[in-house]
Amino acid sequence: MSCSKLHAETAEGWKLNVSYRYFRSFRHFVGTEEQKQRATEHTEVINWQHAINLELVRQLDNRWSLGLYVPVLSNTRSSLYEHGGNNGGANARRETHSFGLGDLRIAAYRWLLDPASSMKGNIQAGLGIKFPTGDFRYQDFFYKNDSTKNLGPIDQSIQLGDGGTGFTVEINGYYNFTSRLSAYGNFYYLINPREQNGVSTARGGTVSSSAVLYGSSTMSVPDQFMFRAGANFSFDQLTLSAGIREECLPAKDLVGGSSGFRRPGYIISVEPAISYEFKKISAYASLPFAIKRDRTQSVPDKLRTQATGVYTHGDAAFADYTINIGFSFKL
Domains (ranges, CATH) in the chain? Predict the structure, then answer.
């Protein structure tokens, strides 16, 4: 669901949701500890993402609906270590880019209770399939010095897709305490059975022997999940929302193996939101900002720790906040 305010549709018809998402990740964490020296030394990796999500929903009756989800992504990644190196000076910082269609998804939804008799609240269940339509082998140039550059797959974090066919499970619910006060909850889980997609992590170079040994030489196809819950305060067409949000990329998948390169972790955010309903159009915006970030140990991290006796724990960059803006049109 695109916004916090949730209710059961009772009429057949089409709805088009258009949303925009932006974030800038740059704060590095190992576990829950921020690596503040990265910013001081100017060695931090910075990712920018602009995403347009198109959702076409068909309400079949008062219980069943179908949805088609089409993401269009524009990503930029700025770093030193992928190019001239962290000690290469100011000219060593370069950018890699990706732009295009992401992974498409279709899903079917059903309200578990009859909307006609369950006016106070309801629960919606959804099942879907995610297709590997996004280019998960996207390449760009990595500059080793002023005269040498290698063409290779860009970092996993800005690839347009993950290369796997996945299955999604969703639970959405709401409860109206009064005409002005209600609660909402959303849960989404992406199951990716494929273990690895075969794309090299060497960025156009030669894969290291340690990456091969511990299983991080190619990119993983990880699961993902998201959870949201909060309260809505309605004033006629205007709704203000306040909630909590968790987004997670787990270290281990529910189905299939979990080897390959990934940066597992989670971010917990406080999420204020606002929406306004016109006759056939509704608009909404939310601004989740982080209160906890945790880059957990990956499977290759754990294998290397066990084999060498030296604790290994990779890092990941997180954003401070995300901007979400969207419009919903009844067709």
Answer: 13-330 (2.40.160.40)
